[in-house]
Structure formats: structure tokens, C-alpha cells
Amino acid sequence: MNAPEAGVVRDRVAPPRLLSGNHAAALGALAAGCRFFAGYPITPSSEVAERMARLLPPVGGVFVQMEDEIASMAAVIGASMGGVKAMTATSGPGFSLKLENLGYAAAAEIPCVIVDVMRGGPSTGMPTRPAQGDLMQSRWGSHGDYPVIVVTPASVREVHDETVRAFALAESLRTPVVVLYDQAIAQLTETVELPTADAIRPVERRWAAGAPGDYQPYAAGDDQVPPMARPGDGYRTHTTGLTHAESGFPTQAPAVVERNQARLLTKLQRNRARIESFEVERTGDAEVLVVAIGISARAAKRAVTAARAQGIAAGLFRPITLWPFPEDALRAAAAGARAVLVPELNAGQLVLEVERVLRGHRVVGLNRYDGEPIAPAQIEARIGQLAREAK
Amino acid sequence: MTFDTAADFDVRRYLRPERMPHHLCPGCGHGIALRALLWAIDDEGIDQDRLAVVSGIGCAGRLSANIDANTFHVTHGRPLAFATGLALARPDLQVVVITGDGDCLAIGGNHLIHACRRNLKLTCLMLNNETYGMTGGQVSPTTSESMLTTTTPLGNAEPAFDACALAAAAGAGFVGREVTHHVPKLKELVRQGLRHPGFAFIEVLSDCTEIFGRKNELGSSPEMVMRQKSGIRPDAYRDTVDTPFRSTELRTGVLATNARPEYGTAYRAACARTVVNAGQGGAT
């Protein structure tokens, strides 16, 4: 595994605990310095809210259950505009409702973290069954062109660490970050060793400094991330979802729009090295490469091991950062592959991105959307078939 | 009852000069409402650095950009929800919400009733001009019955919401209504709202002369404002005089108050008790 944002989570660990993914998300948020949570009950993410309701009061934080999904996203952005690290958690139907405000956070560059636990869809779907149907929605769900970071943990420990990292990325890059995992990871309970509190160094937002008269809210330096003004610090800025100039006020002047939109849209590209994270397993000589996330990646890992035992050169590429997609790393991992298999709990979403990145490769999907996870044996059988066909 | 004059109040101190000229049409009542709000803020001596104004979408929503404070122009219908997060996270700020009748009562109606019920300290000014002005004059939840709009070409068949009755029923700590004709009274009402420790809902009857007025041949802005004035029943006269007021007339002034605990204070007190009792719960 490559090292994401050094210093956020180190290897000092506390005694083992039995934890669910949702519980780990709450603990990760708290460790990252989250002090505001607004949510609305929805299966299978409600445990995140329930944990935060208990965890925040002793540390001086605020938990509020809002009247709906839209309001909870709005309240999170409002708290963050006030300078406090903030998070919400939801599942597909709620995520759909939050998307307009997620777009606002992306456009106005307000840091926030959104946990989306994926359940069977579309619509009300299967609330208690795992799915991976929100991969494209998490990237493209709000209208217009906007940047967003999406991370996809595949274990309870990783839900914790990726939630910590989500805050680090949200705060340092002024962007919404979605922590996206399936119901199986959310409610899976496993023994984990979490990092000790002193092993986590929360990342803080860069605040505006200097004379208020000289401050331009959306003027950025080389990293394309403008320092943010905090209410009460004397800057008295304006924040809007309208397309705005460096001043923060709305504009429709084409040159100004072009310049500011270009910065917004290249902000994450410019900081890719800090954002991208992935896991590779036995890809060096892999002839059949499996690309998967979440619970499907766990099954794929076992399938790859089993295939190797039978003499098949199989490997696994697991994006931990889903968006921006770690495309260079995938190309490197797939360099010697004669076939690429993409198992996922939907009708084919991750496979579209893999096809885009690996143009010219043979890319095959393995899809399941009946509410059951893909079994390792299913993936192993498909790996064997692809290996035979490649001979 | 006597009122201060505006002699000592310089509105320019609270406006952003770079945002002039403003976006409002000639004759629009929203500018009068904005001036009354800023006058009340001045009277209360509220520090502009500690003042946060959150507004939604529409003619009223655009007003936050004109105020020299910490201003947030958010998504349609959601200013109360954004402001709830902001005020809970930053109880040191004075948070004012500016919204319109469509923003507050249609797309944002759910947030309004729950903000009233929750009773978090916020001052919400709903500027009611009976229409969606910015989008060209469609029917809104407060459009009077039989009025013409671009989406009620046959006349509005829906009854109008009484926003103040709604807010009071939902438990708002302070509810009031005023017309733009009575600027000092409006200012005093807003002052009371700003001082109120819980959620304060204030409806300002404004006028959309250019679009709604023109469509319904309601005359010039002064005519529309005078019609509003003649249509109100000051609450002080309630149940005392039957004439010259009509039975359908709108009440103005402070219409409801209650002393329920303010949500943020109550939440923080409960949290403090939790910390004292730590050991039973703690970080789990």
C-alpha cells in the first residue's frame, strides 16, 4: 500500500477492539477533530449518527438531528463556514437529496465530509443489503462541473483511517470528501487495532491572514487552494453558490468565470499526489488483473490468492481513492495484463472508468445486484476462464 | 408611542459600496426592509465582525451581498438549515436569516417549521412580496387568492399561507409582522427579534411593483404600499375596533411570544452535565 498523506495516521496502535465500520467512521471523525455532526436516520448508516451523538458532547462538539437529509447537509456546510470541522452520514436515498448542497460546498469551497453507505438501489431498494451503486453518483451527482474527492475503504480499520484522511483532504484542499463504502463494510464487525490518539495528527484549514482590505477570498497560490476567512476574524466576506470572482462576489464576465472555474477544476489535479491512494497485490507479473473496491475487493483478494495457488498469474488493483481515479497507478499495474476483471455490486460502473483508463486492454465486468456480495469462488472461476482464454 | 428618528443612523456604514447599484427594481419594498434591518442592527450596537447574514435564493436572498458583514448566500430554501449549523457551531455570532416567501414557505417550508420548533437563536426576516419576482412572477405560497401571475393566468385558486400563524403554531419564540410603510415600527420589531433569545420569525409585507403589481394593475409603488397599510390591523387594536378594519385584515406587530428554552443553550447545558458525569459514558 502506498503511503497516503504522511503523518495523518502512523502505526502506533491501541489494544484490539471489536468494531463495526460505521463505529470506526465515528471514531475516525472524532480523532480527526470533527466537532459538528448533523444527520438524519437512514439504514444502513444510522450507527454513525448514533455514535456521534454520544461522542461529541464530552469533547465540546455539537450533534444535531435535522429535519431531513437536505437540512443535515446544509447544517454541516453552515458549521464548516463557521470554522468547525463537520460531517454527515447517509445512504443512497439520502445521498441523492444531499447532492445539491454537496455541489454548493464544492463550488464555494467549504470543507466537509460525507459518509455514504451504499445499499441496494435504485430508489428505496434494499436498505439492509450491500451494493456499490453510488460510484458514479458520488462523482457526477450534482449538476455542472465540480471537483470532489471520494475514498472507498474496504475494512473497519480502513474506514477509520480513511475518515481521518478525508478530513485532512477536505480541510487542506477546501473541498467536500465522500467516504464511500458498502453496507457489508459498514455493518461488518471485526477486530481492529486503531492508532493511538497521539498517533493521529489532525490537519487544520489554512486561515486567512493579513489585512482584511488586501484579502481576496478566492485568490489562491500555487497549490490552487485559497486560505479561508473565519467569521469573527474581521474579514467580512461574502460566500455564494453563484459563479464568483476572486472577491467572492458573483460575476458573469467570461474571462473571470473562465479563470476561476479553471482553478476550481484543476485544484484536485494539481494536488493528485496527496489525494491518490491505492493498494496493489501481486500486480508485477499479473496476466489477469482484478480491479475492485470495498467488499468486492476483499473477495477479489482471496480469489487472487487462490488463483496464484493454481499457477495463474493473477493480481489485484484496489483504488482507495476512487475519485480522482488513480489512473497512472492503474496503467502501471495493468502493464502486463492480458485481461482485466472488474467485479462490482452494480450493473457496471467502475468498469466504465477502468475501460476509459485502460483503452486497448481487454476489460470484463463481473456484476451482481441481487443484494448479495460476490463470492471469492465466483471471481476465482472468472479469473481462471480469462487466463485460459488469454493463452 | 414614540420612535427614534433616523437622523443618527448612517446606513452606508453597513452597506458594501462595491455592490452598488443594487439588484432591486424601482419601487421594490425590499430595500426599505433592508434599511430597517440595518437600522435595528445599528440601534442594537451589533458588531459587524460578529454578524452573520445567511440568505436563500430570490430577490430577498440577494440582499446579503449588500451587507458589510459575514454573509452567506446559500441554496434555494435552505438558509435556515445552513444558519442552524452556523449558529450551533458558533454561538458567539449573531445570525440573521433573510428569506423570501417562496424560499421560506415553499421549498424551505420544512426547515421553517422545524426551526420554529427547535427554537435555536436565529432572527429570520421573511420578505413577503407575494410572488417569485426573480424568476419572472410566478405564484407563491403567499399570493392572494384570484391574483394573476405567470403560472396562474386564470387567477390563483389556492389560499395564501398565513406565515405568522404557521410560525406561532410551530412554536417560534417570537413572531411578528410589519409593513414597509411603517419603517420605524418595522425597525423596532426587528430590534425585538434580534434581542429575543430564541427563534424569531418576522414577516415583512413588501411589494413587487414591477412584476406582480404590473400584472395585477395595482398601480405605482406608493399605491401598493398604501394599500398594504390600509389592509393591516395593528395588533394593539385587536378585538377593540371593528371598523374601519375589514375582517380579513392582517394583524401586525408582535403576534406571539413564548419563553421556551433556547435550543443551543439547552444543548450545551446538557453536554456540560454529560462531561460532569463522564465515566459512565465517555468516548465509546
Structure keywords:
heterodimer; A: 391 residues; alpha/beta; Rossmann fold; five-stranded mixed β-sheet; B: 284 residues; 9 helices; globular; disordered C terminus
Task: Give the SSE layout.
The complex is a heterodimer of chains A (391) and B (284).
Chain A: E1 17-20, H1 21-31, E2 36-39, H2 46-55, E3 62-65, H3 69-81, E4 86-91, H4 92-108, E5 112-120, E6 126-130, H5 135-140, E7 149-151, H6 156-173, E8 176-182, H7 183-187, E9 189-192, E10 238-240, H8 254-270, H9 272-275, E11 278-281, E12 288-291, H10 294-309, E13 314-319, E14 321-323, H11 327-333, E15 339-344, H12 350-357, E16 363-367, H13 376-390
Parallel strand pairs in A: 2-3, 2-4, 4-5, 5-8, 7-8, 12-13, 12-15, 15-16
Antiparallel strand pairs in A: 1-9, 5-6, 7-14, 11-13
Helix pairs in contact in A: 1-2, 1-6, 3-4, 10-13
Chain B: H1 30-44, E1 51-55, E2 70-73, H2 79-89, E3 94-100, H3 101-107, H4 109-118, E4 122-128, E5 131-132, E6 138-139, H5 163-169, E7 174-179, H6 183-195, E8 199-205, H7 209-215, H8 221-230, E9 232-234, E10 250-257, H9 263-276
Parallel strand pairs in B: 1-2, 1-3, 3-4, 4-8, 7-8, 9-10
Antiparallel strand pairs in B: 5-6, 7-10
Helix pairs in contact in B: 1-6, 3-4
Question: How would you describe what is shown here?
Answer:
The complex is a heterodimer of chains A (391) and B (284). Chain A folds into three domains: 17-199, Thiamin diphosphate (ThDP)-binding fold, Pyr/PP domains (Rossmann fold, 3-Layer(aba) Sandwich), CATH 3.40.50; 212-273, no CATH class; 278-390, Rossmann fold. Helices cover 38% and strands 20% of the residues of chain A. Chain A contains 13 helices and 16 strands. Chain A has helices at 21-31, 46-55, 69-81, 92-108, 135-140, 156-173, 183-187, 254-270, 272-275, 294-309, 327-333, 350-357, 376-390, and strands at residues 17-20, 36-39, 62-65, 86-91, 112-120, 126-130, 149-151, 176-182, 189-192, 238-240, 278-281, 288-291, 314-319, 321-323, 339-344, 363-367. In chain A, helix 1 crosses helix 2 and helix 1 runs parallel beside helix 6. The radius of gyration of chain A is 21 Å and the shape is globular. Chain B is an alpha/beta fold. Chain B contains nine helices and ten strands. Chain B has helices at 30-44, 79-89, 101-107, 109-118, 163-169, 183-195, 209-215, 221-230, 263-276; strands at residues 51-55, 70-73, 94-100, 122-128, 131-132, 138-139, 174-179, 199-205, 232-234, 250-257. Chain B is globular. Chains A and B meet through helix 2, helix 3, helix 4 and strand 10 of A and strand 2, helix 2, helix 4 and helix 9 of B.
